[in-house]
Amino acid sequence: MEEREKLDRTLKPRWVWAIAFGSAVGWGAFVLPTDWLAKAGPLAAAIGFFIGAILMIIIGISYGYLIKNHPVSGGEFAYAYLGFGRNHAFFAGWFLVLGYMSIVALNASALALLVKFTLPEIAKVGLMYQIAGWNVYAGEVIIACLALIVFAILNIRGASITGRTQFIFCLLLILGIIILSISMFSHPDTVTTNLEPLFKPGVPAISAILSIVAIAPWAYVGFDNIPQAAEEFNFSPKKAVWLIIFALLAAAITYSVMIFSTAVAAPWTELVQQESIWGTGDAVSSVLGQVGVLILSLALLMGVFTGLNGFYVSSSRLLFAMGRAQILPRSFAKLHPKYNTPYVGILFTCGITLMAPFFGREVLLWIVDMTSVGVTIAYFYCCAVAFKKIAWSSQSTTAEGEVSPLRKTIAFIGMLSGAAFLGLLIIPGAPGFLSTPSWVALLVWMVLGIVFYIAKARTFHKIPESELDYLILGDQENRK
Fold this sequence. Notes:
Layout: H1 13-25, H2 28-31, H3 33-40, H4 42-69, H5 76-84, H6 86-118, H7 120-123, E1 127-131, E2 134-137, H8 138-156, H9 159-186, H10 205-213, H11 216-219, H12 225-228, H13 240-263, H14 268-271, H15 279-324, H16 343-353, H17 361-389, H18 405-426, H19 436-462, H20 465-473
Antiparallel strand pairs: 1-2
Helix pairs in contact: 1-9, 1-13, 1-15, 3-4, 3-13, 4-10, 4-13, 4-17, 4-18, 5-6, 5-17, 6-8, 6-15, 6-17, 6-19, 8-15, 8-16, 9-13, 9-15, 15-16, 17-18, 17-19
């Protein structure tokens, strides 16, 4: 049995919380409030985000249980293997790989969008072509690519550097939100009546709320970066569940504050009708001028940086875990000789995402919408494994030996939540039903997965179960 590569334990609790919170918030809280207002209205959107956060916390409790017992890289990939075997592990890992890398690319494109709004003379240089109605400029492509390269280098240089910078980015992000929200609500030109109507006219309140709840798997994806980094904790993995809960609550507050701060600028029903590449920026500019745009831009910049940082961590650790299990080429399990980081996974993520800016933001949004399905499937797997492993009573003690009717019930509710999220995305007529381009992207990725699995199946299934237990779970006692 070959020696198993191990990552250094360097991540502190506050750094891990920052990885989860910063990744969950990312650029969305600063770019998309007008989209959410148009979809649901201010109060419905806020309620939807808090309901989504509660459901994600229920799912997060199962994550906390599995992290406590199995603090290894790979997250849902490792948990799916633990509960249901190697085929399920491949299925969960395949969807997550694309999901994480797509979000890395989308954060880079959000940076280009910021420059396009604030410094159009730089971003709108060298019109190359148009894809799906989106003009692709050489300037914005260069900006996005530079961001991807810089954060790849930062991640290669060590998890401690990544964690420390992530925490600083999050502090600056929170400071920007506080200053911006106070300035918007205290300004003499803003009135709370601009928030009316609180729900979207002509749409049932429950439908408006559910349209936001449906995007919760996408909005809060990033809290599951915690299990991806679990192997690098320098603290007890028992703390993970609280880090997840605090990160999700902080993200829900952030989303809600930014929605209300945008809506108070002017009657929100008028705001959402304006054509703009950045509706939130226009709303803040109309009240606070260039100073407000500067504060918002700095907060958005920190959100982009935290998203890039966090999802480079998760994608590279997932690739590392799959390479260590020999589902992917073994080169993904190699660690940098100096920094002991999974540099092959980082470089691979960088290489793939460097292609994304050339396809335009609209195409990338289709792919990211599709990845919500994969993320939701991963949530379901996590809760299903926790439900399987936790016992109702001492007469049915599992391999972990944990008896907790409460946790088992929570895991079951998490399973139902995951199934409900999936239904909102794939059931025709549901509020979050995927667009046709997103369905096409999903089917293409599924076909690629089938082809890849067929190519690797013989080699993968030749690995003895005891060896695979060791490679994925870290020791031969953590068996299914």
